[in-house]
Amino acid sequence: MKISIVTITYGDGAKLDRALRSVYEQVLTPGDEVEHIIVNSNKSLPPALEAASHRKDIKIINTPPHGVYAALNTGLAAADSDIVGLLHGSDYYPDNTILATVADTFRNGNTDFVYGNIDYVRGISAVRTSGSYKADNFHPEHLYYGYAPPHTSLFVSKKVKEALGRYKEDYRIAADFDYFVRLFLHPAGFKGSFIPKALVNMDDNGMSRTLYSRLYTNTVEKRRALRENGIKSSWGKLMRRYFLHFKHQNK
Which one of 10, 102, 237, 246 is at 20 to 30 Å from 61 when CA atoms are compared? Predict the structure, then answer.
């Protein structure tokens, strides 16, 4: 089984080296392999990428910065594996068994996609987490309130990747939510499996974590995503996602 990990990077500095090492330290089931696709939007090649560029399992794509979702689409278009996952340049895997666990779940569960939890981290040392985003009790109906599993914990099969197509690049921060809506409500009825552990340690300085993004931009775009997928919604209904998020977080 082959797994493609798509990493997008722009200004991640030393955190990128941490992300790369967490991929290359993964211990896989014999016969499985990893392809690491890195979409680099920096003007030059960061030192961490320059040092890793000799590896046979790495594919570096240099492209001008056109936004997060454009970079993700570039990486996904280059992936031709059985499984595809995302790992941003500032994030990393918490231990060296993550990809083996994901691959075994696909193999043994006859599943089309898997997802899990994430832990938020601060700083390059990341000795302590600043909170968690848990999907243990997630149900597809929660999408109607604007609540979805953590995006960076998602791994999809090649079949799902091809069926869902690209992220919508005219969203600022909620194209990942739109992707989840299309995934869970797809007429093909894709089968998902939940892995009850943190699959990614995620840097908590992302743009979707700012107050303005949470209260306004996020709400506007999630309402749009639901409507574009044939689901009626309202501001009041979408505000319930904060209750769900608080309920499923462990601080």
Answer: 102
Helix (H, G, I), strand (E, B) or coil at 216: helix
Domain ranges for the chain, please list them: 2-247
pLDDT category of residue 32 using cuts at 50, 70 and 90: very high
> Within 10 Å of residue 212's Cβ, how many Cβ atoms?
9
Its CATH class, for the domain covering 2-247, is alpha beta
Backbone angles phi, psi at 94, to 5 degrees: -70, -20
Name residue 6's amino acid: V
pTM to 2 decimals? 0.91
- 3 state SS of 174: coil
R_g of the chain computed on alpha carbons: 17
For the chain, list the strands marked E by DSSP.
2-9, 33-40, 58-62, 83-86, 113-121, 129-133, 155-157, 192-203
Q: How many CA atoms lie within 13 A of 110 on its CB side?
A: 0
Model confidence pLDDT, tens digit, residues 141-192: 999 988 899 999 999 999 999 999 999 999 999 999 999 999 999 999 999 9
